[in-house]
Hints:
By secondary structure, the protein is α+β, with helices and mostly antiparallel strands.
Amino acid sequence: MLVAGIMLLGASLVAASGPAVAQVVDFRSSDREMNRAIAEARRTLPDFVALFRGGTGERHAVKVAIPYDDGNAREHIWMDLTAVEGDVFVGRIANDPVYIDGLTNGDAYRAPSAMVSDWNYRSGSLMHGSYTTRVAMKKLSPDQLRRLDFKLAPLP
């Protein structure tokens, strides 16, 4: 079975101590709970795009599934969103990838919607969306959870 690396935190999600703390949690591609979270995020992606275009919230991001290992696996990594051009999401990679060579934090990136596996934005102290993060957080230790600097808003 293939394992997909899920980047839990992006540059827009930082630890209370200040520096970005990226957590990578690996999931098998057959993980039912994670696949349900991805499906729900993709189902609600048009709503997120409408919120982004309407100026709702701040710090918008999408998680994109970038292939590596000859396309046999995917690393899901956050991208800070700067634009949506038709079916293409435009932004900057928000973490240093673990498995992908030649791509670093801050690199410009364009991803078709088919590559998007999650989305989020902040509104005040609440993080909206983050469907896959909610699943991945279950694998974190209590100490790791305490270091997260965000509260999840209820899902729509």
